[in-house]
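Question: does this match?
>
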Amino acid sequence: MRGSENVAAEDSTTISDDGGATTVTYNDIEDSKEDEKAVDLPPNPAQHPPTQPQASPYQEGELVLAYHNQRVYPAKIMKVDLVLNEWRYSVHYPGWKKSWDEVVGMDRLMKYTEENRQKQQEHNKKQEMESNAKPGSKQKILTGARGKKRRSGSVQKEKAMLLTEKRVNIYIPPGLKKLLVHDWECVTHLGKLVKLPSSPNVDEVLSKYYDYRLKKDDGDGCRLAGSVGEVVNGLRRYFDKALPAMLLYKNERQQYEEAITDNIAPSAVYGAEHLLRLFVKLPDILDSADIEDTMLLELQEYLVDFLKFLQKNQSSFFAAAQQSTEISDLTIKKQED
């Protein structure tokens, strides 16, 4: 039997014989029964088009779990490409700089489900135990997947990242920072307290965020309803416990005693002004909480997203603060006169 070497060229194929290569068309082969028996013919590409890959199981904007350097991290798919009939995904790791972004294949990804999150935690714990068991080994987080030798500066940077690994850094937009400062000035210097009960209160603000997030996620499928609910409920619990302990100024104590009676939760009375104060304290609160590192990364993304939501709805959520601004302006003008 003759050997064959295929070359794609319209309706022809190149058949390699002992003496050399001869280009034979499909019409010629059809006419030559003897050659047809002697040669294993390749399928006609015009009659058998290339097999199309199945639809991508992951979509842009989807939150997934990704293997990186023997660990599993939450990741967000930023772009989906089809390269040589294989799906390739550009992913970003929430909480990490864009310099850690990379392109991975399907073998590096898992769906973000409760079952896979459990596998993620078990896998990472196992890797950590094995890493600690090795003499002189040090934990490496999101490091050199390309296998290149790292410079001393990169090592120092990695050490600094490890020291702050569990620290949740919450970025508060400048507009909301101004509200925090204004809130402090009104209460401590001008004696202007937020009128209670607030409308909307914290419960209502959190519910509005929950509805907003679910409505948006139905369009791009990047988050799970269960995760949004966990974050919202967690913020409500933290607020109710933290308000009397660390979120009130001295001038607000009496108001609190009068407003919170008959086991009424603070989240049902106070509003966005006091909820925003919680985000100043959250890094310290979460730093002392027993939360998995990978869960902290995911939580940080939600918290930043929630602050963006607050800023976007600033005019309706911080009505009391705006009213105080007008009062303080009048007070300042009177003092100047």
